[in-house]
Design a protein that fits this description.
Mean pLDDT: 83
Number of domains: 5
Radius of gyration: 31 Å
CATH architecture of the largest domain: 3-Layer(aba) Sandwich
Pfam family, one: Methylase_S
Keywords: DNA-binding, Methyltransferase, Restriction system, S-adenosyl-L-methionine, Transferase
Organism: Azospira oryzae
Low-confidence stretches: 147-154, 444-448, 627-633, 657-664
CATH class of the largest domain: Alpha Beta
Catalytic activity: a 2'-deoxyadenosine in DNA + S-adenosyl-L-methionine = an N(6)-methyl-2'-deoxyadenosine in DNA + S-adenosyl-L-homocysteine + H(+)
Protein name: site-specific DNA-methyltransferase (adenine-specific)
Shape: globular
CATH topology of the largest domain: Rossmann fold
CATH superfamily of the largest domain: Vaccinia Virus protein VP39
Strand content: 5-15%
Strand order of the largest sheet: 5-4-3-6-7-9-8-10-11
Oligomer: single chain
Number of helices: 24
C-alpha cells in the first residue's frame, strides 16, 4: 500500500525539478539517484547504531555523507559542488555493491541552480526506508509518470494489462522468467508477485522454502538496451526484495552474446518502432527482417525452452501486414508455438498512443498437441478509451482469462463463443498470408450463415472521383457536400461543379484510415483525405452493405491497410428481396433512433425566469465557505478512499472514482468531505467547460473532492440544491462564467471564489423552486427513456444483421 506521505514527497520532488528538468524520465532518474544516495547513508547510520561501521560512505567517500550535504553551515554552491561530485564518482566506490555502482553509472546533475537542489534534497531528506513492499510500490508510482518514450516506440504497459498477461501465462516457482526489453521491470515484478501469491498460506510466499525463494529470484532476468532503463529496473527490483537482481544492458537484436540462453516464461512489450533504415541484426534469426517488432517476436519464439510459454504485446502490423518478413514470422509462429491471439481495444496505451495492439500467446508444448488457434476479442479492458483512461465497469478481461483457460485445458472440446472462437491452423495458412486478424475467420467455419458467404471485394467496385478537393476549397455557403474520412457525415461544401459525383444509386463511403462508413444518396465531392467510394454490383443493395458494416465495423488500428481488409471481410448475401426486407426493417428502427437522438441531443432544461423574481448573488444563498475556501484541498488520488472527478460535460453527472487504498474513514470535520446535495464546479478548463456544474446526489460517506473543483453547498432555507444546479447550468450563468473566467492569453481560463460568489441567481420562493425542479425531473425522465430507446433499437439492428448469419446473438 502506497502511503500518502511518500507519494506526496515524490510529487513534491517532481514539482521542484520540473522547471529545471522538464523531461519526466530525467526527473525519475534524478529522484532515483537521490533516493538510493539517502538509502545508503541511512543503512550506514543503522550499522553504526548497531555497533558496526560505515561501509557506503567510508574512507575517501566519507566526505559525501548525507549529514554533510544537509549541514546548515554549507553554502548553496558548496552543496551543489559536493553533490554533483558525489553522484559522478559513486560508481567507483569500492564500498558499495555492484548493483548500486550500476545505478550511479553515468549519473550527473543536469542543472546548476543551488536553490533548486536545496529544496529537492530537503524533500529527499524526509524519506524513511525499510525493505518492505511499501517502498517498492512507491517507486512503481514514481515510474508511472514515465509515460511514453515514443521516439523509441516504447510505451509503458498499463499495470492491469501486465497482470492480465501474467495471469494467462501462470508462471511457476521453478520456471525461469525473462523480459528481453524490460523497461522498468513491470512484467518481472508482476510475475514475482504472482508466484508468491500461488505459494501463500498465511503470509505472502510463506510456502516457499528459503532455497525455493533463492532459486526463484535467480530465475528472473531482464535485458534492456538503455542504461537508464537498466538502472530503473535494478532499483525497482531491489526495492521489491531482490538483493541481487539480474538485469543487464544488452542489445537483444544485434548482440549474439546471450543467444544460446532460453527461458521457460517470456513476457514482453517490446519496442514497436524501428530507426530509419531499420535494424541491422545478426544472422541467427530464423526470419530475416529489419523491423524491430518482427525481430523481437522471432527472438522470443526462438528462445523459449521446449516447454516454454510467452505473452507478447504486438502492434497490428504483426497481425496482418503482407510484407515477406511478417508472413514468414506468422507462419513460423502458427506452425511451432502460437496458441492464442488476444485483440485489445485501440486506446489501451492512451494518452501516449492510440495504436491498436494485440497479445500473442505462445506455448510450445500445447501447440504440438493442438490443431487450432484461439482468437479472443477484448472490447472493454476496464477503462474508457479517452485520454484520461478512467475506470469503468464491465471489463472483459476476467472472461477472457476464463475462455483462454478452457481452451488450454481442452482445445478439442472448446466451443466457440461471441468473445472467443478457435480456427484451425490449416485454415489460417490456406491463403498463404497466415493472417491473424480474428474477423477474417469469424464467420467460418464455426458460425454458419443462413445464406451464401462472399468477400466484400467480390461484390463492390470503387469509383474514382473526377477531382479531390483540398480544404481550402471548402466553403460554408457551397452547394455540394464534401465527404472525407471523418466520422462526420459532411466535412464542408463546394461550388466546384467539376468535382461533383452524381450517383445513380446510393454509394457507400469507406474511410480508408478511420473505417468510418457513410451512405450517400445525393451529389457530392470527395475531400483530399483518403476514402474509398464503393459501388455495389447487382447482387448487393448498398443500403444492406452499409447497415452490415455499421453493425459489425472494421476496427481501426493506425495502419493504412483497411481497404484491403474490408475487401476480404466476409458478408452473407441473401436474395435482393430479402435484403430489401432487412433494409426496410432496419430503416424503421433507424427512424426511431434518429427521433430519440434528436430529443437527447437537443434537450436542455429551461427555467422561465419571471421579471418579479429577485436576483441575488450566489454568495448570499449558500452556506459559509469551508476552512480552506470553496476549492477542495489537494487530494492524494492514490491513497484517498473515494475521490470525485467532474466529467467535462454539461450533463450534471459526477464521475465517481471508487478506488480504495485506505481502511480508515475520513474525519467528519474534513474540509473537503462531500455531502449529498453539494454542487461542484470545474475551476479550470476550456472556455466552453470552465465552471461546468454537477451535483453529488448519492447518500454515501467517505467521499472527498480535489482542488480542481469548487464546492457550492446550498442554504436549503433559501434555495434548493437541484434548482441551483439548473441555474448554474443555464445559458445566462454559462455566459457569465465565460465572460468572467480569468487566464493569461493562451492559458486555461479559471474561476475563483470571488467569481463564484458574484454569480447572479434568479430566486423565486421555495414552493416555486420545487415545482420547477419537479417539472425538469419529469422531462429528464423522458430524456433518459429516449436514451434507453436508442440502445434498445440499436440492439435490434444488430440482431437483424445477425439473423442473416444464422445467429440469434
Amino acid at each position: 500500500m502506497l502511503d500518502s506521505d511518500t507519494k506526496r514527497r515524490i510529487d513534491s520532488c517532481r514539482d521542484i525539478l520540473v522547471g529545471k528538468v522538464p523531461d519526466p524520465k530525467s526527473q525519475v532518474e534524478q529522484i532515483t539517484i537521490a533516493l538510493i544516495y539517502k538509502f545508503m547513508d541511512d543503512m550506514d547510520a543503522e550499522a553504526e547504531e548497531l555497533g558496526g561501521k560505515r561501509s557506503f560512505f567510508a574512507g575517501e567517500y566519507a566526505k559525501y555523507g548525507w549529514a554533510r550535504l544537509m549541514a546548515p553551515n554549507m553554502g548553496g554552491f558548496d552543496v551543489l559542488a559536493l553533490y554533483s561530485e558525489a553522484i559522478g564518482k559513486m560508481n567507483e566506490n569500492p564500498g558499495i555493491p555492484a548493483l548500486f555502482r550500476d545505478i550511479f553509472k553515468n549519473a550527473y546533475l543536469p542543472y546548476r541552480d543551488p536553490e533548486t537542489l536545496r529544496a529537492f534534497l530537503k524533500e529527499i531528506d524526509g524519506f524513511t526506508y525499510d525493505h518492505s513492499e511499501r517502498l517498492g510500490d512507491a517507486f512503481e508510482y514514481l515510474l508511472s509518470v514515465l509515460g511514453s518514450q515514443g521516439d523509441a516506440g516504447q510505451f509503458r504497459t498499463p499495470r492491469h494489462i501486465i497482470d492480465f498477461m501474467v495471469e494467462i501465462i501462470d508462471p511457476k516457482k521453478n520456471e525461469s522468467v525473462l523480459d528481453p526489453a524490460c523497461g522498468t521491470a513491470g512484467f518481472l515484478i508482476s510475475a514475482w508477485k504472482h508466484i508468491l501469491r500461488q505459494n501463500t498460506k498465511t503470509r505472502t510466499g510463506d510456502l516457499l522454502t528459503p532455497e525455493e525463494r533463492a532459486t526463484l529470484v535467480a530465475n528472473i532476468h531482464g535485458y534492456d538496451i538503455s542504461p537508464d532503463m537498466v538502472r530503473l529496473s535494478l532499483v525497482n527490483l531491489y526495492l521489491h526484495g531482490f538483493t541481487d537482481p539480474h538485469i543487464v544492458e544488452y542489445d537483444t537484436l544485434t548482440s549474439e552474446e546471450r543467444w544460446n540462453e532460453t527461458a521457460d516464461i517470456i513476457l514482453a512489450n517490446p519496442p514497436f518502432m524501428s530507426p530509419k533504415g531499420g535494424i541491422k541484426p545478426h544472422k541467427r534469426f530464423s526470419v530475416q527482417a529489419t523491423r524491430s517488432e518482427v525481430l523481437f517476436v522471432d527472438y522470443i519464439a526462438e528462445h523459449l525452452s521446449p516447454q516454454g510459454r510467452a505473452a507478447i504485446v504486438v502492434p497490428e502490423g504483426i497481425i496482418f501486414q503482407s510484407g515477406t518478413a511478417y508472413k514468414k514470422l506468422r507462419e513460423m509462429l502458427v506452425k511451432t508455438s502460437l496458441v492464442a491471439v488476444v485483440s485489445l481495444p485501440a486506446g489501451v496505451f492512451n494518452p501516449y498512443s492510440g495504436v491498436k495492439t494485440s497479445i500473442l500467446i505462445l506455448d510450445k508444448r500445447l501447440a504440438k498437441n493442438c490443431d487450432s488457434v484461439l482468437f479472443v476479442k477484448v472490447e472493454n479492458d476496464g477503462f474508457n478509451l479517452g485520454a484520461q483512461r478512467r475506470a469503468i465497469t464491465g471489463s472483459d478481461l476476467p472472461d477472457a482469462v476464463k475462455q483462454l483457460r478452457k481452451f488450454f485445458a481442452d482445445a478439442a472440446g472448446f466451443d466457440s463463443a461471441q468473445m472467443a472462437h478457435k480456427v484451425a491452423r490449416v485454415q489460417i495458412g490456406a491463403s498463404g498470408e497466415w493472417n491473424l486478424s480474428a474477423d477474417r475467420y469469424r464467420n467460418s467455419p464455426d458460425i454458419q450463415a443462413a445464406y451464401e458467404i462472399v468477400q466484400i471485394g467480390d461484390v463492390v467496385s470503387t469509383i474514382t472521383p473526377p477531382l479531390k478537393l483540398q480544404k481550402e476549397s471548402y466553403s460554408a455557403a457551397g452547394r455540394y457536400p464534401i465527404i472525407d474520412q471523418s466520422q462526420q457525415e459532411i466535412a464542408g461544401w463546394t461550388n466546384d461543379e467539376f468535382a461533383v459525383i452524381r450517383p445513380a444509386k446510393p454509394l457507400v463511403i469507406f474511410g480508408d484510415h478511420t473505417c468510418a462508413v457513410k451512405l450517400i444518396k445525393q451529389p457530392f465531392a470527395q475531400g483530399a483525405d483518403g476514402i474509398k467510394i464503393l459501388e455495389t454490383n447487382n447482387q448487393l443493395l448498398p443500403e444492406f452493405l452499409y447497415y452490415s458494416l455499421k453493425a459489425n465495423p472494421l476496427a481501426t488500428d493506425g495502419y493504412k491497410r483497411h481497404f484491403t481488409d474490408l475487401k476480404r471481410k466476409l458478408l452473407p448475401l441473401p436474395p435482393l428481396a430479402i435484403q430489401q426486407e432487412i433494409v426496410a426493417e432496419i430503416e424503421g428502427y433507424q427512424k426511431i433512433i434518429d427521433g430519440a437522438r434528436q430529443v437527447v441531443e437537443n434537450y436542455r432544461p429551461r427555467i422561465n425566469v419571471q421579471p418579479d423574481w429577485p436576483v441575488v448573488a450566489l454568495g448570499e444563498i449558500i452556506e459559509g465557505k469551508p476552512k480552506n475556501g470553496y476549492s477542495g484541498k489537494p487530494v492524494d488520488y492514490e491513497t484517498s478512499t473515494k475521490v470525485l472527478s467532474l466529467s467535462a460535460t454539461t450533463s450534471g453527472v459526477l464521475d465517481i472514482s471508487r478506488t480504495k487504498y485506505l481502511d480508515e474513514d475520513i474525519p467528519n470535520d474534513a474540509a473537503c468531505r462531500c455531502r449529498q446535495g453539494d454542487i461542484y464546479l470545474q475551476r479550470g478548463n476550456t472556455a466552453e467547460l470552465v465552471g461546468t456544474a454537477a451535483i453529488f446526489d448519492v447518500n454515501e460517506v467517505n467521499y472527498i473532492y480535489p482542488d480542481l473543483m469548487i464546492r457550492v453547498r446550498a442554504d436549503e432555507t433559501k434555495i434548493l440544491s437541484h434548482y441551483l444546479l439548473h441555474q448554474l447550468q443555464s445559458p445566462s450563468v454559462r455566459n457569465y462564467i465565460t465572460r468572467n473566467a480569468v487566464g493569461a492569453a493562451g492559458s486555461m481560463p479559471k474561476i475563483n471564489q470571488g467569481i463564484v460568489e458574484r454569480i447572479p441567481i434568479p430566486l423565486p420562493d421555495l414552493e416555486t423552486q420545487r415545482a420547477i425542479v419537479a417539472e425538469i425531473q419529469a422531462e429528464q425522465a423522458l430524456v433518459n427513456a429516449n436514451k434507453e430507446l436508442i440502445g434498445c433499437f440499436e440492439a435490434k439492428i444488430k440482431a437483424t444483421i445477425n439473423r442473416v448469419w444464422g445467429s440469434s446473438e
